[in-house]
Specification:
By secondary structure, the protein is of the alpha+beta class. 35% of the residues lie in helices and 23% in strands.
Amino acid sequence: MSDSSSQLLSQEEIDALVKGVDLDSSGFSRPGIYSSAPSAESYDLASEDSALISHLGSVEMIADRFARLFRVTLASMLQYQPKVTPRELQVEQYYEYRKTLKPPLSLNIMKLNGLRGNALINIEPQIIFNSLDRFFGGGGKSRTTVEGMREFTPTETRVIQMLVKGVTTDLEKSWSPVYDLTFEHSACEINPQFAQIVDEMDLVIINDFDIEMANEIRGTIQVVYPFGALKPIGHLLKGHVQADYADERDRRWKQQLKSCVKGVELKLKCDLAYPKISLYDLMHLKVGDIVPIKMPETVVVQVENVPTYEGTYGTVNGQAAIRLNGLVKEEEKS
């Protein structure tokens, strides 16, 4: 056997096998397996599942319902009609949200009974001071501002408690069609650094409500939900959106069907009399003969051969007509 025939692998193939033993760019080392650059994408197992984001329509519906309810609650507290407008929902990491907060604020940590985790209700000081002015008989013209960090006074704290109570009561009513969720006050902070409801990198759902009060004074109330807390009821949120969409679709379909049905033309007829003659008279009838009939007191109007109305025969403006007296009774139909 020659040397050329005994060489089973070429030099190029041998070099490729030797290369496979070395570490590749991704750090893999599997002896005996040919190494190639793997087409892998990194995935963070600790990241939040974004499937819920597509089903936030239910949360927006809850926000709209809350805005209507809270408008009434504020009106009873302030004795005038404020304007409450929900903004579009935002989803971002908690540390990014916390960077937007500037003390002093009324940060109320709420335990979510029915779900795991805590929510956050943030009330801006403009709303607190203006409400306080109104409670003490003022005209709601207070434009008090506070720079830096300071604790709220006992009177201001009492006003905050009343506002938080109104917010949580209306939130629970707004959530009730979707899920039985209640809010329990856990703590109150003025420093965002101490209002930790989730880890820094966790996602939160931010629900802003712009409050337009008297004398062009504006403020914001924020309701912040942990993204992970709503994941267990994601199917309910999805189902609620689908149900609302289905109801709306059915409603439009019924309206279109009703509109089309109203345009259908129906044939009406009315038999005035049923005279009887003998076979002999029938055989001898000729042109010009008169068949006497006795007009009934009432006649039956048929719609597509279905007895429907009772009426009285007569004339209007020289034309034959029937005045409808009512629907045909069930026993007469048979």
